[in-house]
């Protein structure tokens, strides 16, 4: 990890948009996912905080649900993305998903390196680095997941996670103005649990990741999200350090997602609070 300027203000800090992402993994079927998108579309369509970019939202459905979700969220400002992509765009790659095609069907995000992709599909830093380049080549904002496997002390976790980020971004080419990147800090031991990681622990790791990103001239704008059993209350607890949340199960109920959205609005723009 390299030293750099003090971290920019995070969620509670005022200037940057709060970013909320939701992954459906393989939890919901296509119809339920599209139903969720229709409900959320109604809730956010005309909301000034979302329309004005103070809160940035994205959703990552399973692949077959993407067209229906893109349709349901049309005109709402909520971005849609895939939970994975392949590193090549065309060729003899049976079963692979092209970033170019994701773009064609309306995606603007691609998740890379979720803990489940590493653990169940054998993806390593080299593979993930190629996928990162493929996402950027196709104009997809990468949602790059990093996180230590086992709970340790926050400083050790910060070093381990920063090293992971540096390894995956090693072959990232330079670009005019820098790449737009979302990093999701997801401690693997906190995924699928009842509670999120302790805010001080997560905050220490996020501060370390921010130093890595801010000292990398290839990165333009970046946001660091916390993921791992995130739920109503988590965003406020992390307001000094995280730029937002990457949500799983606790956002699959639109009402609970609405609570997190209200929390984001209250942090960013208290007078726009809906509830
Ligand atoms: O892995 C996650 C999001 O990608 C988090 O999932 P949970 O919030 O369900 O633990």
UniProtKB/TrEMBL annotation:
Keyword Cytoplasm assigned: yes
Keyword Cytoplasm attached: yes
InterPro entries on file: Aldolase_TIM, TIM_sf, Triosephosphate_isomerase
Pathway: Carbohydrate biosynthesis; gluconeogenesis; Carbohydrate degradation; glycolysis; D-glyceraldehyde 3-phosphate from glycerone phosphate: step 1/1
EC number(s) on file: 5.3.1.1
Known catalytic reactions: D-glyceraldehyde 3-phosphate = dihydroxyacetone phosphate
Keywords: Cytoplasm, Gluconeogenesis, Glycolysis, Isomerase
Primary location: cytoplasm
Molecular function via GO: isomerase activity
Catalytic class of the enzyme: isomerase
Pfam assignment, any one: TIM
Compartments where located: Cytoplasm
Family: Belongs to the triosephosphate isomerase family.
Subunit structure, as described in the record: Homodimer.
UniProt protein name: Triosephosphate isomerase
Organism annotation: Sinomonas terrae
Lineage: Bacteria, Bacillati, Actinomycetota, Actinomycetes, Micrococcales
């Amino acid at each position: 990890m390299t030293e750099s300027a003090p971290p920019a203000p995070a969620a509670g800090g005022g200037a940057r948009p709060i970013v909320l992402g939701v992954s459906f993994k393989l939890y919901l079927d296509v119809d339920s996912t599209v139903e969720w998108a229709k409900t959320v579309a109604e809730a956010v369509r005309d909301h000034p905080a979302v329309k004005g970019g103070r809160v940035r939202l994205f959703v990552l459905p399973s692949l077959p649900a993407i067209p229906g979700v893109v349709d349901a969220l049309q005109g709402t400002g909520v971005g849609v993305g895939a939970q994975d992509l392949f590193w090549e765009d065309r060729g003899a790659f049976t079963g692979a998903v092209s970033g170019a095609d994701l773009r064609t069907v309306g995606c603007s995000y691609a998740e890379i390196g979720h803990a489940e992709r590493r653990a169940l599909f054998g993806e390593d830093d080299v593979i993930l680095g190629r996928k990162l380049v493929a996402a950027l080549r196709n104009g997809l904002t990468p949602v790059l997941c990093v996180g230590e496997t086992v709970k340790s002390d926050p400083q050790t976790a910060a070093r381990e996670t920063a090293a992971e980020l540096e390894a995956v971004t090693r072959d990232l080419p330079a670009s005019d103005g820098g790449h737009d990147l979302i990093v999701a800090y997801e401690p693997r031991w906190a995924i699928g649990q009842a509670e999120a990681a302790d805010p001080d622990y997560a905050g220490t790791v996020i501060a370390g990741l921010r130093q890595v990103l801010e000292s990398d001239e290839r990165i333009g704008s970046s946001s660091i999200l916390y993921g791992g059993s995130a739920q109503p209350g988590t965003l406020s607890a992390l307001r000094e350090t995280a730029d937002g949340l990457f949500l799983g199960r606790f956002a699959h109920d639109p009402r609970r997602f609405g609570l997190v959205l209200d929390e984001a609005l209250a942090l960013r723009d208290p007078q726009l609070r809906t509830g």
